[in-house]
Amino acid sequence: MSVPPRICLAPMKGTTQFAPLVAIGFFMREFDLLAPIYSRLVFEQATHTQYPVEALLDLWVSILAGCRSVWQINTKIRPDLSLAQAWGRSRFADQSTIARVLDVVSRSKSSNWARGSTRCTIGGVKRPTITGPVLQNSCLTLI
């Protein structure tokens, strides 16, 4: 017998315009769906940041949020702290940091990123099993 999911509201310190992306970010972190990307993507050259993979993931979130250019990150998703927290970040990277990381990414790195992303979303991750009791007693809370 299947238990229907229970969705509840919890107070948040901030607001967001991207509630579906908050849910996706929380889900991806909860089931560690980005692990293949973190483990396979390595930068040999120095980048502007200590965390270039996170900068690329910030770019991906910005694309999902509807940013058409890197410069829109500062005005569209960077101020949204609730969205950043759902993706495990205190704040998204600045657009200049992301642009500098993209400058370092060569053609081979781009293909590695694509392969890692494909494995993450299609072949490398099994569908997570969610049992009734987990859904009965949990709420999505962003502090």
The value of Rg in angstroms is 17 Å
Beta content comes to under 5%
Task: Give the SSE order as H and E letters.
Answer: HHHHHHHH
Outline the low-pLDDT stretches.
120-143
What do the pLDDT scores average to? 76
Shape: globular
Please provide a written account of the structure.
With 143 residues, the chain is mainly α. It has one domain (19-124). The chain is 51% helix and 0% strand. It is built from eight helices and no strands. The protein has helices at 19-30, 35-40, 52-64, 73-76, 81-86, 95-104, 107-123, 132-136. α3 (52-64) crosses α6. The protein is globular, with a radius of gyration of 17 Å.
Summarize the structure.
With 143 residues, the protein is mainly alpha-helical. The protein has helices at residues 19-30, 35-40, 52-64, 73-76, 81-86, 95-104, 107-123, 132-136. The chain has one domain.
